[in-house]
Amino acid sequence: MNKYFSTKISIFVFAAPALLLFTVFCVYPLLPEIWMSLHKHDGFQNLGFVGLDNYMDVMASPSFWTAHKNTYLIVAISLLLGLPLSMMLSLFMDAQTPRFRRFFKTAAMFPAILSVTVVAQIWLAFYEPNWGLFNSILDSLGLSSWTHSWLTEKKTVMPSIGLTFLWQYIGLNAMLFYTGIKTIPKSYYEAALIDGANFVQVSLRITIPLLQNVIKYVLILSTLGSMAFYSHVRVMTAGGPGDTSRTVIYQMYYTAFDTSEFGKGTAIAVIFILECLLISFVIQRYVAREKLEF
Q1: What is the CATH number of the domain that holds 277?
Q2: CB neighbours (10 Å) of residue 23?
Q3: Is the N-terminal amide bond of 62 cis, ω within 30° of 0?
Q4: How many domains does the chain contain in total?
Q5: Gap between the Cα atoms of 122 and 106, Å rounded
């Protein structure tokens, strides 16, 4: 019994500093925001308690749901298109000779280390409707009917921004997968080669199953990173045309700073935090539940 309690006490003692830091820097700062979300606030003074009215007002706004639709579209692009491409890129890098592997690792990381502003400006030039790269290629191929004003048309603006986001971070995710691949014991691959397994079979039967913990980490990172999507929208479209390309974070910024309704802006922030916590819980609960030991 004494050993049991001493173990529990030891765990608490060692965990207490981290728990204290988490409480001070993560939990405590949320409390004033929650309190502000229950008040009418213009950023300078509290104009009175309104209860849940701010939450009801923001959820009654069509822009709020447009922002959610755009945000989860970016999440879908990142997960359904970005993660498989990142995985294939990491498997491709692992199969190369050391010389080419160094080149591909550098090329994969280069977009991720660039400033968002730089990346956005590059892709703004690609999307320019008169002389941009994409429309010029389509014109040269005789596909002028396929050209668009990519960032001013409602049907193309969010996929276009999503492609920019995907290009910038696909290499980063590939490097995370590649790092996980290098932790898998080589003996597994040697045994598979002796049994006559080819590259596809090795990837599907050994590499990907043994990467489940890394996949879980990248899944959380990509999902929450996509939900916090803001900078590309701010630089490339400023939420336009109209409110067509606003995301949840951009809607929060617009509500708080452009319309000076800080109470409603913080209400959006609280809703966003709850959504992120729920998504993180679901991923933690249902993805890669088995503990792997090599």
Answers
A1: 1.10.3720.10
A2: 10
A3: no
A4: 1
A5: 19
Q: How many C-beta atoms surround the C-beta of residue 119 within 10 A?
A: 21
Tell how far CA 233 is from the center of its chain.
Answer: 14
| Residue 4 maps to a domain | no
DSSP state letters, 7-45: HHHHHHHHHHHHHHHHIIIIITTHHHHHHHHTEEE-SSS
d(CA 265, CA 257): 8
DSSP structure class, residue 147: -
- Tell me, yes or no, whether 5 lies in a domain: no
Q: Which helix (H) or strand (E) holds 47?
A: strand 46-49
Has residue 222 been placed in a domain?
A: yes
Q: Which residues contact 203 (CB under 8 A, 6 or more apart)?
A: 91
Give the per-residue pLDDT at 294.
Answer: 59
Indicate whether 153 belongs to any domain. yes
* Rounded Cα distance, 92 and 97, in Å: 10
Per-residue tokens: 49: 């308690």
Number of other residues whose CB lies within 10 A of the CB of residue 203: 19
Q: How far is CA 190 from the centre of its chain?
A: 36
pLDDT digits (tens, 9 = 90+) for 20-52: 898 888 888 888 888 999 999 887 788 889 989
Range of the domain at 213: 48-286
Digit-coded pLDDT (tens) for 187-242: 888 888 888 888 888 888 889 989 998 999 999 999 999 998 899 999 999 998 88
Give the distance, in angstroms, between the CA of residue 154 and the centroid of all CA atoms in the same chain.
Answer: 22
Q: Which residues of 25-36 are buried (b: 16+ CB within 10 A; e: fewer)?
A: eeeeeeeeeeeb
